[in-house]
Amino acid sequence: MARVYNFSAGPAILPLEALQEAQKDLVDYKGSGMSIMEMSHRGKEYDAVHQEAIANMKELLGLNDDYAILFLAGGASMQFAMIPMNFLGANQCADYINAGAWGSKAVKEARMIGNVNVAADCQKDIPTRMPEEGECKWTDGAAYAHITTNETISGAQMKSIPQVNAPLIADMSSDILSRPLDYTKFDLLYAGAQKNLGPSGLAMVAIKKDFAAKGNMALPSMLKYQIHIDNNSLYNTPPCFGIYMLCLTSRLLKAKGMEQVFAENQHKAKLIYDVLDNSGFYRGTAKQEFRSDMNVTFRLPSEELEALFITQAAENGMKQLKGHRSVGGIRASVYNAFPIEGVQCLVDFMKDFEQRNG
Ligand SMILES: Cc1ncc(COP(=O)(O)O)c(C=O)c1O
User: Mutate which of 152, 173, 195 to test ligand 1's pocket (most atoms within 8 Å of Cβ)?
Assistant: First the structure.
């Protein structure tokens, strides 16, 4: 089998066990004679997958029935629009933290709908970072406060969740279920699936039902959270295959437990950060106290060396290490499914590359 160590930021590596299970089930799902992609989303086989995916998400997030779990098409970017459409009324203001490219995109979409206060803006700071405690200027009576817990491009992650009075909303696309958190702090949290949960195109949304009920009801059906809640995320044909994959990955996360998932993630990231910290050759791009456990970003002394690093890493079975096109450099994304052996391989390669080129 020719699997590489895949450092992609997303769509990203999925657990091999989940891929193999999907492969086994692909043409004949559990003796039905059909694949899960070919059957009714109202039939008993798919329904069991749907219900299990919802139950697993609730359990992993530690949420009770005050919350609904929704699986919506359009990725996390659709949520950037749906959130203000549902919750940012006329004469209201929403607070946003803008700490990177994804926070900026969320702000841009919300501004199409209503008033936005950027409570803290460190989007352009180098080293990249999250706002410090006390830096955020929250609005009294804000409709909601929106944060991005992990900026996938910059490699900065919130290590603690800000205390706010307004309903709290989080884009957790690139660190969902990577660590135990008190997820009940959030009125709405969402994640594009393509990093820690499953394939792209699907967003997992956890939303407090009483918060959704206060939303704008004068919206087209597909854009209204309440419709999706009322229909248990089966208002229209859902992205069935993506939900099935998410169900498989959630089983594995449950079996491992969030404490263990977190311990492994911290360990993997630390192995790479230790190389950066002990080198005059590599330079981490995120401020130390905000360094992401999911996306490790760094630079080499020149762009030529970065290109050589990426080429030689690929020749050694380590792919998709190129930083985002907007910032360059190197980005090693080490999501839940990324194996420790791959991190060890990268670390050995980094040391060797430094010796040869430093
Ligand atoms: C933090 C964050 N938010 C939002 C998105 C956008 O997700 P999508 O492409 O699913 O719309 C991404 C994509 O990488 C992301 O990393």
Answer: 173
